[in-house]
Prior knowledge:
Number of strands: 10
Radius of gyration: 23 Å
Order of helices and strands: HHEEEHEEEEEEE
Structural class: alpha+beta
Distance between the termini: 66 Å
Amino acid sequence: MHFMTLFLVVTLCTCSGSVPSASGTPDRPATSEAAAAATTSEMTFRLIDRGVLGRAANADMETADRTPMMEIASSGNRYESLWRTHINDTPAPSVDFEKESVVFLIMGPRPTGGYAVTPESVTRSGNDLFVKTRIQEPEKGAMTTQAFTAPYAVIAVPMPRARAGRWVRSDGSLMAVENGGNVQ
């Protein structure tokens, strides 16, 4: 019986590989995935505003660009400008840009109600933000409000001077990319 237990312990130790770390091991160098995981961290975020009647709700549905966009504001002037462009003419809520940056997630104009953007998580990898959201869309044939809408969410993240990021759905599919003012 002791021989069988010893045999199993030796077999398991021999068959199991070493666990790679971000720095790697002498026989296994660090992988880029491990290095990336070491610099990726979940961040808290603060919801500033969320709604379905952003400025794009007033757009001409025939010619309006319905491409979702992500824009980041790291200064009061850019924040106020983006707020007036995408949300409305009311004063934008207060933000301390010494401590935070603001992320605008703009879904673009939609022909009916039933759409919504709900932020779920924010992750930082180096200088880049990754914002994951749940996107609500009406089921085919569902009864919806027959009015143009423009869903959006605006969040503050504890990362001053943020410039670049990616907006993804809960399933990981890409919604939009922001490259320091150069939106893709």
